[in-house]
Amino acid sequence: RAAEILGPKHDYYKDLKSYQYLFEGYLMQLSMRSLESKAEKFKKQTLYRQALQLQPRNALAALFLSNQFATDYQNLDSCTYYHNYAKALKPIWVIPRAYYAYMLCNYFEEYDLAKGVIDEGLKLDSINTTLIKSLGAYYFYKEDFLQALSVYQGLLQIDSTDYFNYYNLAVAYQKNNHFEQARYFFGRSIELNPKQTSAYNGLGWLLYENKVYADAERMYLKGLANNPKMFVIHSWLVLLYLDQKKFAEAEKHIQAIKLLNEEDWRVPFYHAAISAIKRQDKLALSLLEASFKKGFTDFELLDKVAYFKHMNENETYKKLINEYSTDK
């Protein structure tokens, strides 16, 4: 609105338009949470690029591009390029290091590189909470959950008001098999920020994992009330309802996922699961292949869920798994 009032000839016009593009892209990122179509991902990248073109020294635009190349494309080279771009513009700003380290752990399993980036950042700012969160994430993704727990506990001594500190602490307790502590800290996170979705999702998963289905469903639905586009909650609700053979309820959330991205592999996968539960194996195999063609890659998931286990000796099923898993 300010850019519109001042007009293209004003000295601040380019800066204002740059920030407009930057935050239009970031709002897309916050609302969709990784179930975007290719076109939507490209639109977001275009907005970030336009922001950087108008403000070539905008380190925040470079940071957002670095993050997007990790989260949307798993492209380490481009992620690193834009991280270095942001770092060159703001050498003592540690936030790019914090995000880059997190991306290295979460998307690329480059743990040694991530630790070096974190250590470099901590020399510049030893009490930066975003950087310390990335240190916790480093231990978490290396599955050193006790050390992650220690880092997250220390964060509360620095900042006891950040809801995400409590969320991380809850997840660490969950990984250390402390159900009650995890439940308590998810609850504290929600108390501090009732409008978030992460803690509702985390608490829902904790309860679902312990087969407290009614409470898990309640938490998931509260999370969706805050963000109806949170596809991961729709996914967990589908699994929760399939475990209870509530097919109509499961279908409602499959359709919600389809509305978010019609081409997502989860839609045929969940329909395959329903068919398998009903012992409609021929249809299940057809739908399962459709999910593979749409990008399903988590073949370990097939061993974890019970829906397809009765087909383990089915030759067509084994051939299908071998064909696509080998190709991957």
Question: What report would you give on this structure?
Answer:
The chain has 328 residues and is mainly alpha-helical. Helices cover 76% and strands 0% of the residues. It contains 19 helices and no strands.
| Tertiary shape | globular
The percent range for strand residues is under 5%
> How many β strands by DSSP?
0
Rg, Å, rounded: 22 Å
The proportion of residues forming helix, as a percent range, comes to over 70%
Order of helices and strands: HHHHHHHHHHHHHHHHHHH
Q: What value does the average pLDDT take?
A: 94
Q: Which regions have little confidence, pLDDT < 50, spanning 5+ residues?
A: none
| Major sheet characteristics | none
Q: How far apart lie the N and C ends?
A: 48 Å
Q: How many helices in DSSP terms? A: 19
Q: What structural class is derived from the secondary structure elements?
A: mainly alpha
Helices and strands in order, then pairings?
Elements (H helix, E strand, L loop, with lengths): L1 H5 L6 H20 L5 H17 L4 H13 L4 H14 L5 H14 L2 H14 L4 H13 L3 H14 L4 H13 L3 H14 L5 H12 L3 H14 L4 H13 L3 H14 L5 H12 L3 H13 L5 H6 L10 H13 L1
